[in-house]
Request: fold
Amino acid sequence: MTVTLKQAFYFFRRNILRLLSFALVIAILVILLAQLLAPLFIGALDAEHINPETVRPFAQFLNLIIKPIYTGGLIALIYSLATGQGAGIYNSLWQGVLRWPYMFMANVMTSLLIFAGLMLFVLPGIWLFTRLFLVPYLVMIDRQTPLNAIINSYEYTKGYALTLFNDILILVIIFILSILLLGSIQLLHPLVLLLLILLFQSMANVLYYRHYEILVKEPRELENSHELKNSQDKNSTDD
Reply:
């Protein structure tokens, strides 16, 4: 396990209740939206005609609405916990709602780029993902536009793709082994699987944020510190 992954896991373990509580709030929101909007999509269908094919367009529509809010709110919550700002779950969720248009566009643009890469023998798609994973963090934390976030993420991650890929690969292997273990002892209940997926998603976002700190936040703070020191030295010289 790499140092970065260990740091992310330590942060995740300390804040697991807050992160899972946020996921629970999102789950409740999805259920409420599903009950409200389902009649518009499948209300005219008889129960015998409802199947995965008829439900898929509705599920995709819900995903378009919820995913940008979920990702944006989770990033806001992780950033708040990491910086000690103390923003609550609902405040973080509200930030996700406010940034929904930007996160939506960022999600569409990066998904199209990564999908195009996956069509080119898979590996280009994986490589593009490692170069663009910073996009939602730049949109939410730095308030960048989706296009600027894509350009800057590609620049920040130059020469860093393999480092992130190693951490993600380890995390995916742990996730798969957990599923296999639970399946072997007959504990892979749908609710247990859902909890495992939520844990994996939360841990992955914590890991991405730690890499954001390494690539963006810490170098920026170091640069600002140098600029402040140089300014102070210049003022002392002038005096």
User: Anything to note?
Assistant: The first helix runs from residue 3 to 14. The CA atoms of residues 22 and 90 lie 8 Å apart. The chain has a mean pLDDT of 85.
